[in-house]
Amino acid sequence: MTEPRWRLPAEWEPQAAVLIAWPHAGTDWAERLAEVETTYVALAAAVVRFQRLVVVVADAGVRAHAEALLRGAGVDLDRIRFIELPYDDTWLRDSGPITLKADDGRFQLADFRFTGWGGKFGAEQDDALIAGLVAAGVFGQAGHRRIDWALEGGGIESDGAGTVLTTWKCLHQRHPEQSREAMDAILMDSLHAGRILWLDHGYLEGDDTDAHIDTLARFAPGEHIVYQACDDAGDKHHGELARMGEELAALRTVDGRPYPLHPLPWAQPIVDEGRRLAASYANYLIVDGAVLVPAYGDAADDEAARIIGSAHPGRVVVQVPCRPLIWQNGSLHCITMQLPAGLV
């Protein structure tokens, strides 16, 4: 009997739903809860135009509150499934499941250890989130593999064909004792990848993740790469992001060709109480038939949306107001996890 071939699907492949967790007063959003809920409502409204949404809520009260907000905004609640589970925070890109798919149609949930981005924050409930969703029956007959190695979904990008892109800064912070070769072996085994591409440059001030790839560079269909550039020579990010751009230009596809690159414009510095916030346009979300793009109230918003749309032809481009999110050092992609078609 032939063993099935597994792979990590690309985000632009067909999806069943998007998974999020609703912010509430017991999370770090408490101080600006009403403000950030406007982003969650806009996100939910955008997603359900194209596919279903699975919303994790802490309890019945949070569910009722979320339902009232969504209903008030005209969001179709019939396209939303609520699941009650405890969670520390709402960054489900990093605590949610990384879903592998076999060529026979089976799924496996890769459940890596979530450490609160290297121990920066408490994460015990978030680390148990995938097991809770499995127990709630969200994923049907999908396999569930617990992997005792720290990795967040925002730290990896897959082209769906066996190539995974990541950053050395992030994974070296999580595993300072391991060599790049050792990490290559772990990633290729756990993600069924054929090769791992590493970036040594690139960061955003105000980013807690130690340079997650989904804030910096993203695979796009047709072996393209979209990345966050900085065209302001006076900005402290300019040199590092320019070097990252050079690294991306030096990468080659499996058959030896350079990747066509799509540099994104740079938002002007957004400062909150003296702290610069990480406003990345690369942190966008792909759903069936659309691409949801962060908007920060900056003059570069529309150009960023145009470029991202050009890299994802045939999809509707929807801008989602994400300025409230970057107060907690993440953006649109960080609060979501796509679930492949057939999984839910």
From TrEMBL:
The alphabetical list of record keywords is: Hydrolase
Highest taxon of the lineage:
Bacteria
Instruction: Fetch the InterPro entries from UniProt.
Output: Peptidyl-Arg-deiminase_porph
Checking SUPFAM superfamilies in the record gives: Pentein (SSF55909)
The record, for PANTHER family, names: AGMATINE DEIMINASE-RELATED
What is this protein's name?
Agmatine deiminase family protein
Species: Dyella agri
